[in-house]
What we know:
Residues 1-19 form the signal peptide. This protein is of the alpha/beta class.
Amino acid sequence: MKKIIFILLLSILSLTSFAIPLNNMDKAGNVTLPNIELVDQYGKKHNLQDYKGKVVMINFWVSWCSDCQGEMPKVAELYKEYGENKKDLIILGVASPISKEYPNNKDRIGKKELLKYIADNNYIFPSLIDETGKTFAEYEIEEYPSSFIINENGHLRAYIKGAVSKEELKQNIDKVLTSIQK
């Protein structure tokens, strides 16, 4: 059975142009993503490893992306609906402001403007600020938005490339949450 699941997972990953290197896959077919240690717009430090035991959705976005602008309010709604990171689901955004030191970062605005953009648009869920672009590079983000849903053991369970509906995000989240409640 595990072999069938492994082959199925590999097939799905190859069809979706999976961006995360498959050398992060264990023998059971579980993909572990790179750790993230970044500070959010509120000054709070987040370490992905601290969320073991929880389901985590990570949404990579940029301010200039129209698909991101359409999806971000949905992510903010989900953040509220699922308990504002106080229950079994942690929702995190990741943004990468441009700077003199890092002119190749993905956003087109600097950190100060990005923080204002987040506040002005009422994106209240934690948006981690990837000032060096390291996290975007490690996750090989090429399309915006890109979302990853990780189970309670830190294994990738869904990779969503591009914008999707709120309902599709909920379906993916609920599928992973249901597995921890069994």
